[in-house]
Amino acid sequence: MHPWHRLPQKWILQRSKGYRWAFGIAAVETEDIRQLSTLPGLSDDSCAVGLLRVEEQQVPIATTTVHRQQYRTDRDSVTPIHEMIRKLESQGVVSKARSPFNSPIWPVRKSSGEWRLTVDYRALNEVTPPLSAAVPDMLELQYELESKAAKWYATIDIANAFFSIPLAAECRAQFAFTWKGIQYTWNRLPQGWKHSPTICHGLIQTALEKAGEVFEKGEKIIQILLKAGFAIKRSKVKGPAQEIQFLGVKWQDGRRQIPTEVINKIIAMSPPTSKKETQAFLGAIGFWRMHIPEYSQIVSPLYLVTRKKNDFHWGPEQQQAFAQIKQEIAHAVALGPVRTGPEVKNVLYSAAGNNGLSWSLWQKVPGETRGRPLGFWSRSYRGSEANYIPTEKEILAAYEGLQAASEVIGTETQLLLAPRLPVLGWMFKGKVPSTHHATDTTWSKWIALITQRARIGNPNRPGILEIITNWPEGANRKWKAAVWSPTRRVAQATEGQGGSSQIAELKAIQLALDIAEREKWPDSISTLYTDSWMVANALWDG
């Protein structure tokens, strides 16, 4: 048996490009740790609904009456939704009504198989006055979790939080919906309305801010929320634990990982038979794209069959992409944690390929043979970008990578930029090449960002330093360079792997100069002519 088979708690990734990664999360023991779910006051009722001890909420009212007929719903949802409405009516969450407004019910199946009663308020949302948003960005929360690298975690999930918030009577009519010929409306904040998350988040913040040290212990948080009037499901309270699931992501020591049940669900999916099924599959895997190197390039054949102008055709190219992305999901590595300190090296790898851009951010500290990834990004070319010259594509990849890296590690951190081609020298010249496709405005944008953050020759200051190194994913692209002199009857070639066509151009120049030196050609005939802007700028500092 292979020795790696004795590591069941780790995910071993063997990529076709020749590198093996072994990142994993070890099992933890929590049997002797008192769990928050044992606290009194928690509910075991899956339909539990609280009632906040606050004034009935005055919310924005639509500027125009919206009336939409109920459309056909999923047959499997009819009985559960009927029972849910009956239960909510008995709890005072909804009540029968007569209103000129009406929006269709839009049942949503949860991952557990249960149904969520939501209403399609898209038309109502369009005519609802704005409200200042106060909901935290999910990506920011994830980055914050990565940067903390905590040893212990806990999560608390408020049961039906929106349904705990009472609405003022004059605001209720706009939320009317019809079920089995009877019109109802919400007496509490509904799901699906644009301002519900903002209002709910604000009320939770208000409740928690009443205690000075509330975040030190989960027990205090639970007591405060219960006292405020929220109901909390016992089954949704997790921790303390060294491994927790939050925002759909598995967390430990600040590292984020795809949960095993998510991987199993994706692996079990059958090939799509329609555009709708393809879109559903792409939706299921898209959330995890930061874990997958060159995600956009891999799934591009799947996006082709979802375009409106294209008929659905599932061919060998789609099947190969489908199988490959599932394999990548199964072997995805953990990301993070974001570490800080003078010994931490942040390296951004960027590259431009035939089908799009890709970049990845890594951190390495002394003692690590290979750094840890913080994220992988990729995208296809947009609009005229596909017509850019190779140099422009490489600079665009570096530009996009810098923006992504700044969101993870900030702009005041030392960053080592490792593009496939050197770009900083060209940026500091501030010159736009005579042969190019990107507009002068686009070039100015690239130059401004890269030179603003770059620090050439000053490694102790925050900013960007450029290094030329091999990509950690390994490159399967091969190149070959050759030189031939018809007058002197000299020919020579070399080849390699892990570079681009521009690398081959430079190798050809190197070969020519080596031959000139070996053959002792006169300086007068050792003049270089090239139609490559990249070669000219790489060799000439004038």
Automatic annotation (TrEMBL):
<dbReference type="GO" id="GO:0006259">
    <property type="term" value="P:DNA metabolic process"/>
</dbReference>
<dbReference type="InterPro" id="IPR036397">
    <property type="entry name" value="RNaseH_sf"/>
</dbReference>
<dbReference type="InterPro" id="IPR051320">
    <property type="entry name" value="Viral_Replic_Matur_Polypro"/>
</dbReference>
<dbReference type="InterPro" id="IPR041577">
    <property type="entry name" value="RT_RNaseH_2"/>
</dbReference>
<dbReference type="GO" id="GO:0003676">
    <property type="term" value="F:nucleic acid binding"/>
</dbReference>
<dbReference type="InterPro" id="IPR002156">
    <property type="entry name" value="RNaseH_domain"/>
</dbReference>
<dbReference type="Pfam" id="PF00078">
    <property type="entry name" value="RVT_1"/>
</dbReference>
<protein>
    <recommendedName>
        <fullName>ribonuclease H</fullName>
        <ecNumber>3.1.26.4</ecNumber>
    </recommendedName>
</protein>
<dbReference type="InterPro" id="IPR043128">
    <property type="entry name" value="Rev_trsase/Diguanyl_cyclase"/>
</dbReference>
<dbReference type="GO" id="GO:0004523">
    <property type="term" value="F:RNA-DNA hybrid ribonuclease activity"/>
</dbReference>
<dbReference type="InterPro" id="IPR000477">
    <property type="entry name" value="RT_dom"/>
</dbReference>
<dbReference type="InterPro" id="IPR043502">
    <property type="entry name" value="DNA/RNA_pol_sf"/>
</dbReference>
<dbReference type="Pfam" id="PF17919">
    <property type="entry name" value="RT_RNaseH_2"/>
</dbReference>
<comment type="similarity">
    <text>Belongs to the beta type-B retroviral polymerase family. HERV class-II K(HML-2) pol subfamily.</text>
</comment>
<feature type="domain" description="RNase H type-1">
    <location>
        <begin position="464"/>
        <end position="542"/>
    </location>
</feature>
